[in-house]
Each structure stands twice: as structure tokens, then as C-alpha cells.
């Protein structure tokens, strides 16, 4: 019977094309508005590494001065000092550890037809690539010996490598960056996780991909400043070494644990480390030491702000308004078919069968509204993506939202059709037959 009711539904769409088109359009606009907003929220709040995010941990140690501090306040900065980062790297806690700073400088191409240009990236320690599962197109990460020695080696993104060398494999060649010659040891494939959980501070959760990677020890050896957020709480004194020895915070740090259950042991170790540092005259606030897994870190940094959530609620409010209008249109559409319902009831059709027929017809309207709403949503996301580079990363629809669009449209139409369908089932056959 479902196939029969489906044919009836498709046939009845053509009986009043203007009213049907208005219902489909109303439903499509409501679905497109809500799905566009929900898609952006879905991408922004996504888990970049769902299979291991609970094992990727950010430590926070509050090393700011005591002056102006009230117990329980949020730390003044969410990064680590160089001293703490180096101590945590040497701790052997977890199965991997990485410290990350930002870099920026000029690339001087070998090609005479290409002028120098600015390029930004990060200077992590070697474990970064395995920890965040960075895919390699050519070569590999630098070695542990390179990490210790601060060797002038570099890893390029595929985009930068193709810009400089075309389709050729550049591994083993040298390039000049920020006034120094670097040996290219690897080229990563396309990799730009959204959100960029590994480096939220200083560059943002939805910025473009880093263009190059080099050892932190190399950047420090050349006395580069961090290309990103740097907070200093005291007069650190002159010179780069004084900067390294200061309480300035500018390094983002990650642990990778073997299992999520190892987090308690890491917390105990971090508390013991902080206690030892206080004996040395540091960490005067005696604030709690915090650990955040990847999703907690995204929440703590408010990657999805209240304004984004409010936009989603407003979009669903608009969808609700569209549903109310659709209910009115369906009432008008079904009310003129009272005679048809009366004849069917007189011929033996039950209220249940009438209900199924009209609800199937409503689902057909919802399906049509879903297809049109999907087109509208794609158009809306394309326009949003043109507004900025950051929005272009989040304004994209995946297969999950594609399914959600159709389910939402059909479910919304069937929800809107419950009252009109129920009213249609209440037709009294005798009264309708007498009126004919």
C-alpha cells in the first residue's frame, strides 16, 4: 500500500501546483537556514582526532606572579614558559611529548623568476608528526639527533613544495628561510585539521595550514622570537637567554598517553613537578595544575562561542516558523479534499488508511523540500565561504549533514502534517455524501 500511497502523493502534488510550490519553498528555506548554521556549528565543534583525542593532553601550569591574583581565577595565559616546556619534554611522561612555537620569515627561492615571499609555520619537536598523525608525501620527519642538535632541517607542505619546485621531489635539496640554509627532509601531504586543536593560541582554530615545520631547537639556536602569542609577567632582562630563562609563556605543549587511564598518573607527576618548582622559588600562586584532553581543550578555549550557539537556536526558531506556515498551507490543501475523503471512507477505507495516505503525501512534500533545501544550503554555505578564509574552512557540508538535511526536511514536513492529517481523518462520510 505504501507504493500506492506514494503514487497518490506524487499525483496530488500536481493538483494544486501553486500551493504545493509554496509549501515546498517554505520548507526548503527553513531547512536551508537551519542546516547552514548547523553545518558550521558541526564543523566548528568537531573532533579532529576522535580515535585518540582522549589520550592527547594539554598541561597548564600557572607561573604568573602573585600580585593581583585571587584563588580560583583563570590563569593569565594558557601556554608554558621555555623552562617548563623543556622540563616536561625531559620528563619521559606519556609515550610522546611535543612543544610548539610559531615561526615566520622570508623564503628566498632558487628560481630567479620568483621573488622572496613570507611564509609562516611552526617549530615543534619531532614527536609532533607522529602524535598528530601528519601524513608524508615525500621523506620523513627529522631525526631525534636533529632535534637534540637543533639542526637546520625543514619539512614543507605539499603546497609550498609545489610552489617552489613543481612536481619534483625536493627532499635532499636546500632552501633559504629567514636568512639560513635548511636541508629539506620531508614534504607532508594535504593536512589541515579543523579545528586546529594543536595550535589554537596565536593563530586560531580555523586558520590556514602551516606552510613549513622546523625543529624548535633550531629556532632557539638562531634566537628567533615566537611568531604568535607571548606573555611576559616580569622584567626579563636583556638578551635572548634571559628571555628563555624568564617566566614568559609562549610555548604550546602536548602529551600523548598510552591509554586515557594514564591521565591520573600524569596529574600526580605534574603536581609533584610544580611542588618541586615552588621549592626553587617559582610558581608563587600555588594554583591547581590542569590537564585537558583535546575536546576539553577546545571547550576551554571556547572554539564554539555562545554567539555561534545562539545563531543555531535562532535558525531553528526560523525553521519552526516555517513549519507553522506549512501547517496552515497543509490545512488549506487537505480541507478542499473533504469530499474525496468522504467517498473513500464510504467505500470502506479506515481512518488509519486515510492517515497513512495523507502522511505519505506530506513526506513527499518534505522530500521535495529537502532536495530544494539542500541546494539552498549549498548556495548559502558557498556565499558564507567567500566572506573570509576562516569561514571557508567551516562552511562545507559533509555526508553527515547531507543525511541530516533530508531527514530534517522529511521529519519536519511529517511533523507539520500531523494536525492537518488528523483533521482530514475526522471527516464524516454521510455528511460529505449528502453535500454532493
From TrEMBL:
Subcellular location: Cell membrane
Ranges for domain MacB-like periplasmic core: 20-272
The keyword Ubl conjugation belongs to this UniProt entry's keyword annotation: no
Entry GO MF terms: ATP binding; transmembrane transporter activity
Keyword Cell membrane applies: yes
GO cellular component: plasma membrane
Keywords associated with the record: ATP-binding, Cell membrane, Membrane, Nucleotide-binding, Transmembrane, Transmembrane helix
Membrane topology classification: Multi-pass membrane protein
Segments traversing the membrane: 310-332, 362-387, 399-419
The protein's name in its UniProt record: ABC transporter ATP-binding protein
Encoding gene (name): ybjZ
